[in-house]
Design brief:
By secondary structure, this protein is mostly helical. 49% of the residues lie in helices and 0% in strands. 21% of the residues are buried.
Length: 107
């Protein structure tokens, strides 16, 4: 774990997601934060196991799939996909541009 992440995690109220968001957005560090959208989209796409609940495990698996220079774009694209199509309760699979590739797509 990076020294900056250790310092951030030592602060009251700062957890892994917040630390990673700060590192990516403010410090430009290569980390792929896992928020609710990234978690949901990555599981529905089969990139991580549906049973995986551990934040750091999910983050490391996703980071292993992409080049560090792409973490910011991947993070933002997963959020956009989760907000527009891959919604928690009523996913819009029929409209999703990834429905032909998604193992969870429902028509």
């Amino acid at each position: 774990m990076s020294e900056a992440r250790k310092v951030l995690l030592s602060l009251p109220g700062i957890g892994p997601k917040t630390a990673d968001i700060l590192l990516l957005f403010c410090a430009g560090k290569p980390v792929l934060p896992v928020d609710t959208h990234v978690n949901r989209v990555s599981k529905r796409l089969g990139l991580v196991s549906l049973d995986d609940k551990d934040y750091d495990s999910i983050r490391m698996k996703l980071e292993g799939l992409y080049a560090p220079e792409d973490y910011f774009a991947v993070h933002m694209l997963f959020i956009a996909l989760g907000r527009k199509y891959c919604k928690a309760l009523k996913p819009l699979c029929n409209l999703c541009p990834l429905n032909g590739l998604c193992p969870s797509a429902k028509f």
